[in-house]
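Record 1 of the preview.
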Amino acid sequence: NSGAVCLLRPLLLDVVPGVRQTAALALGRLADYDVDLADAVVKAGILPQLICLLPEENRYYKKTAAFVLRAIAKHSPQLAQAVVHCGALEALVICLEDFDPGVKEGASWAFGYIARHNPELSQAVVDAGAVPLLVLCIQEPEIALKRIAASTLSDISKHSPELAQTVVDAGAIAHLAQMILNPDAKLKRQVLSALSQIAKHSVDLAELVVEAEIFPVVLTCLKDSDEYVKKNGATLIREIAKHTPELSQLIVNSGGVAAVIDCIGSSRGTVRLPGIMTLGYVAAHSENLSMAVIVSKGIPSLCACLIEEHEDHIKAAAAWALGQIGRHTAEHARHVAVANVLPTLLNIYVDTLSSEDLKAKASIFKALKSILQKCTHLPALEPLLHEAPPNIMKHIIGQFSKVLPHDSKARRLFVTTGGLKKVQEIKAEPGSLLQEYINTINNCYPEEIVR
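->
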C-alpha cells in the first residue's frame, strides 16, 4: 500500500549486486504472501527486468530470481502463465544447467510450481527442454535437489499419458526406481509419487514401471515409519493394480496383497485409502484374484475400516472393495457374509449421519446389492430381514426365493426363526418383483403354515 513494489523495481538494476539480490528477495517474499500481492508484482512489470540479466548474474541472484518466479507461479494458472509469457522458462533452463546445486534446486522448484497447474503449462515446461535436465538433477548427490527434481517430474507426469511418456523417454523410471530404498523419507515420498503419476495413465506405462523391478522392493515402503511414504507406496501399488488382471496377479505373487492388508491394519484415516482401493481393484479383476484377497484375510481388515473410520468417503471405499470381493460367486459372497459385514454395511447405510454424503451412500448401497445378489448363505441374510429398508429388502427376499425351493432344511429354519412371519408382514405392490419373490417363498409351504 505504501508503494514498495514500485520502489523496489529500479533496485533490480542497481550497480551493486547485493542490492539487486536483496530487492529481488523482498519482491519474492511479497509475492509469496498471497495472490493479490503476486498479481501486483506482475502488473508492475517486474518480471522482464528480473529475467533479462539472469544469465550473467551470480548464483545468489539466480537462486533469488527463481524464488520470485516460484512465489508468483504457485498461486494460480493465470499467474504461472504470466511467468511463462515473459520468457522465464528459458532463463530457468539456464539455471538448471548451472554448476551450483542451490541454483538448480531453485529452478526445479519454479518449474514444479508452473507445471502442476494444468497440461498446457506442463507442456510448456517440457517444450522448454526441462525434462532431461530434471532427470540429471535426480542423479546429483544433493538430497534436497533430488527431492525437488523428483517432485517436479511428478507434477509434469500427472496430467496426461503424453506428458508422462516424455518423462519416461528421458530415462526417469530407472533412476526413480533405484531411489525407493533411499533412507531419506521426504525423497521416498516424491519418488513414489512420481512413479504413481507415471503408472496411473495406461497399461503400457504401468508395465514400464513394473519392469524397473520395483517389486518386491516397494513393499518395504508399506512398513515405513513415515505416513506419507506408506500412503504413496500404497498409491503406487493401487495405480498398477487397477489396469489388468496380469498386473494384479504380479502384485499377489510378490506378496503385495498381504503387505497392503498389514498396512491397512497399522494405519488410520486417509493413509488407509489407497490400500483399501488396491484390494478392491485386485478383487474386481477375477474370481481367483478375489479369492487371493479373501485368503490373505482382507475381509476383516476392510470390515474394521467400516467400523473404525469416521469419514464417509473412506467407509464408502471399504464398502466398494467388499462389494468387489463378494460379487463374483456365492462362495465369495458367503466369505463376506460370515465375516458379519452385511449388518455393518446395512447400519452405515441406514444411519442418518451417513446420508450427508449422497455419493458415499450410493457406494454403500451398490456394495450391499452386489453382495446380496450372490449371497445364498441364509443365516447371514435372515437378521437383515428385520432392519432393511425396502430398496434393500427386495434383494434379500430375492435370494430367499432362489434358495428355499431347493433346500428343505433352510425352509424349516426359515419358519422357526420367524423369517416366514416377517415376509408376511411386508407390504409389496401387486405385480411387483418383490411380490413375485414373496409368492415364490409362500409357495414353498402348505397354506396353513403361511396363514
